[in-house]
Write a structure and sequence with these properties.
Length: about 400
């Protein structure tokens, strides 16, 4: 008999909170059920933070359950205040629709859509046509403002200001769950642990409106051991779109994570056997470096392709062994207008390439001996790269592991 998928998720550390863990375990073990996870279309690509949700969806689909990927065509217009210090940037309907289409294409790599398989729905189909007064009478009456203000999602925003538009988000997400329950037989909502308050509200709304039992489960957020969210670099978010984060950069992100985070990432994001992960020794260089390489290869193969993972691995080996192969490393094509007096300062070049966020940060790296150009360590902050060098192309190394090619 195969292992219960809920137990599998627990063992891999994916389960954070559940409304009724034993009931969920029993249901997932004896019948095929629809469940949903929501994705607000705030950008034109999914990112590393979404990847954990896709991993959970895939685990459940492989166990025979039916994922519903809910695209927030309407809720994206409102913005979830959960975990946000400021109000979300307002997007047009056209921008949201375009982003939703990008999400659809990307999700197909991880979850199998089709008749009797996963479904994709858009809450714009039912939320945009709501009559506001009827909605307040039918749904709003079941929400206590006092309880809403006591949730972490709202408490964190009260000092900086919370708009009434955002205040509606919890009602709309709860209504989504009710709508999916009524129209798709969906009794479970999953989401990141920061969604716990919203999920509980949806479970409660179904109980009040339908006198039925629904369930909610949150999974662990992808964070470092210190609790910082993963998926950011000096250049910004790590995207799943190869045009926004090239496969080699994606590979290198995972290859360069902190030693303390490797085993957790392997448990949460891959299907590597837990016994194998347990054997990794964090204080053993060859063991932890081998694990990092396996993690980076596996995730690059899943998100992009095995071919891209092989290319990234080959490039990394060549660079770190001094081979100099650079055709697949991250690169920046500079505009000639950035050059003055036949060249560009190294500090300006590092900022232009996204290697540092500021000239001050670049200066500190040079002063600490952490920057090389074409394998020559640079010690002068006033160093310049000539136009002739850039026409040929130069390879900048930041620290021991980050390589970047700059050319005109």
């Amino acid at each position: 008999m195969s292992e219960n998928v809920f137990t599998k998720l627990e063992k891999r550390g994916l389960v954070a909170q559940a409304t009724d863990a034993e009931a969920i375990r029993e249901i997932l073990g004896k019948e095929s059920i629809p469940f949903y996870i929501g994705f607000d279309a705030t950008a034109d690509s999914l990112h590393v933070g979404h990847f954990l949700q896709l991993v959970v969806m895939r685990h459940l689909q492989q166990a025979g359950h039916k994922p519903i990927a809910l695209l927030g065509g309407a809720t994206t217009m409102v913005g979830d205040p959960t975990g946000k210090s400021d109000m979300r940037k307002m997007l047009t309907r056209e921008e949201i629709d375009y982003n939703a289409e990008c999400f659809k294409r990307q999700m197909g790599k991880f979850v199998e859509f089709g008749e009797g398989k996963a479904q994709m729905v858009n809450n714009a189909d039912w939320l945009l046509s709501l009559n506001y007064m009827e909605f307040l009478q039918d749904i709003g009456i079941h929400f206590s403002v006092n309880k809403m203000l006591a949730t972490e999602a709202f408490k964190a925003r009260m000092e900086r200001g919370l708009t009434f538009m955002e205040f509606n988000y919890m009602l709309l997400q709860s209504y989504d769950f009710l709508y999916l329950y009524r129209n798709y037989g969906c009794r479970m909502q999953f989401g990141g642990n920061d969604q716990w308050g919203n999920i509980l509200s949806g479970v409660d709304l179904i109980r009040r409106k339908e006198s039925a039992e629904a369930f909610g489960l949150t999974f662990t957020l992808l964070t470092t051991r210190e609790g910082k969210k993963m998926g950011k670099t000096e250049k910004g978010t790590v995207w799943l779109d190869p045009e926004k984060t090239p496969p080699y950069e994606f590979f290198q992100y995972w290859r360069n994570i902190d030693d303390a985070d490797v085993k957790n990432c392997m448990r949460l994001l891959t299907s590597f056997p837990l016994d194998e992960i347990k054997e990794i020794r964090e204080n053993d260089g060859p063991s932890i470096n081998g694990a990092k390489e396996k993690l980076a290869y596996e995730l690059t193969a899943v998100v992009h392709s095995k071919e891209e993972a092989e290319k990234a691995l080959k490039t990394a080996h060549s660079l770190f062994s001094g081979g100099g192969q650079d055709e697949d490393m991250p690169s920046t094509t500079l505009d000639a207008s950035l050059l003055t007096e036949g060249g560009i300062g190294l500090l300006e070049l590092m900022v232009a390439c996204g290697l540092t966020a500021s000239k001050g940060e670049a200066r500190r790296l040079v002063e600490q001996g952490g920057v090389s150009v074409d394998d020559v360590k640079i010690s002068e902050v006033s160093a310049r790269i000539s136009q002739a060098q850039l026409q040929k192309g130069v390879v900048i190394r930041k620290g021991k592991k980050v390589y970047h090619k700059a050319h005109l």
